[in-house]
Amino acid sequence: MNINAIIGRDRELFSHDVAANEKDLSAAIAGSRVLVFGGAGSIGKEVTAQIFRRRPAALHVVDISENNLVELVRDLRSSLGYIEGETRFLPLDFGGLETEAFVASQKPYDYVLNIAAMKHVRSEKDEFSLMRMVKTNILDTRKTLGQAIASGAKKYFAVSTDKAKNPANLMGATKRIMEDVIFGEAEGTKTAVSTARFANVAFSDGSLLHGFRQRLLARQPIAAPRDIRRYFVTGPESGMLCLSSLVLGAHREIFFPNLDAGLDLLTFSDIAVRFLRANNYEPVEVNSEEEARGRAGELIEQGKWPCYFFNSDTPGEKPFEEFYSGDDNVTFERFRDMGVISAAKVSAEIERLYRAFLCRTDAMRQAGRWSKADLASAITTACPDLHHVEGKGSLDGKM
After folding, report:
1. Cα–Cα distance between 291 and 144 in angstroms, integer?
2. What is the percent of the chain with per-residue pLDDT over 90, rounded to a whole number?
3. pTM for the whole thing?
4. What is the separation of C-alpha 248 from the centre of its chain, rounded to a whole number of angstroms?
């Protein structure tokens, strides 16, 4: 399946920039000690492969998903083989005691990458999932940054999201707070910090496009919003963007895809149509979930596929995404396909806000009880750019 054709592009992004800077990229990674948190997810495995092929002295990968980690090892061995450097793959929670003990037992790392994240808006639906989002995206990120700083790491990279700019949902706001925290906490240390804001990674685990594949395998109807538009990059492109920010990014720099490089805003319904036709099925639009389920067997036997397209009513969904705004210090001169934001030094007021947030959430966790309203209030106070309206709907209530 030609993913570029499905997402409306005729060439790969970032490969030109990576090739132009290969000498610096290889020189930085070769012989270095590298630790990757969340290295077996859709983005993490791509970053890990980019690092592996540049032959580090040590590559240690931590991921909470035992199954994904096993598949990562199989994929690396089957595609790239082996390197002389030490490789270790550990099925651990990156913010847990076991990971902390493991890192403490090792020689210091030159580069630490944090690709672990809770990235779904649907995961802010209740106070328990939302607290885990806060823990993963902010608290554990701060903890692992602290470990990197204490050991004298050259660089700490953490993945962000396009939803961090002018966030409309709590998930995006947690990533925006994360940016403030890591830039603020690393200031004045020997450890530089950079990040990357992504478009949607096409067909990544858990994404709607990945859901299209699963529905096809299960011979089930496809449902998608017709009014939500997104930018898309491929898995390999996500790995190249992360690697570029890790090695080529200066302190407080945020890398993102240059929209002039050929990215277009696409609706999920348009992609569903392209996806089905690429798999030799003709999409047939129906009027309800019930009709889609009821006609699936009949239509699929005819080489057609039932599709229910609807207007989104889920809270926190922006109609389109953005990577930067007019008040950001942005350059497009350094790379062909990547833009770079030079984030301002974290102000005393922003530092006060995020430190108050850390104290407030720590008190909730120590008490062992909290409400969604409490957490939402803490997030909103710490992220003044958040424009969030609480709603009753949830993506869990849709097909």
Report:
1. 49
2. 78
3. 0.92
4. 19
333's CB contacts (< 8 A; 6+ apart) are none
CB atoms within 10 A of CB 75: 14
At a CB cut-off of 8 Å and minimum separation 6, what does 181 contact? 138, 141, 142, 145, 354, 358
Place of tokens 């409400």: 371
Sort 201 into a burial class: Cβ within 10 Å, 0-12 / 13-18 / 19+: buried
Q: Which residues of 15-50 are buried (b: 16+ CB within 10 A; e: fewer)?
A: eebbeebeeebeebbeebbbbbbbbbbbbbbbbbbb
Q: From CA 158, how far away is CA 175, in angstroms rounded? A: 10
* Contact present, 162 and 199 (Cβ < 8 Å): yes
Query: Encoding tokens for residue 310?
Result: 């609807």
pLDDT the model gives residue 262: 63
In the chain, the N- to C-terminal Cα span, in Å, equals 24
Closest CA to 193 of 110, 251, 148: 251
Structure-model confidence comparison of residues 26 and 264, the more confident one:
26
Residue type, 376: A
